[in-house]
Amino acid sequence: MSPSIRRRKSAARISITPLVDVVFILMIFFMLASRFTQERQIDLTVSGPTGASAGETRFLLAGPDYVSLDGEKLTSEFLIARLRLDPAVKLAIKPVDGATIQRIIDVVDIARTAGVTAVTLAR
Description:
Layout: H1 17-33, E1 45-46, E2 57-62, E3 67-69, E4 72-74, H2 76-84, E5 90-95, H3 101-113, E6 118-121
Helix pairs in contact: 2-3
């Protein structure tokens, strides 16, 4: 008879230290990669191909270096003066080729400065 040999089973040890390190590295990455500020938004409605709703609508063409109200090219000061005559007007802004987003925002700001509240963006 052969004597039975008992083997002692060693318990497998799993270290969680590398796991904790990875979790902290991921947490730091996501903290640095995320944004905590809200973006500013401008409230604009986009009119369809039929134009704005009922009421007097004036069309404003916003070019890269000019603004045209009902076909007449105006400077910013004259545009503000013209729009202050009737702040209840509905204004449809149509960008012209070459006009940047910043130019459109500047024109919206000019209209808001003049007191116009109904501003839409035409296609």
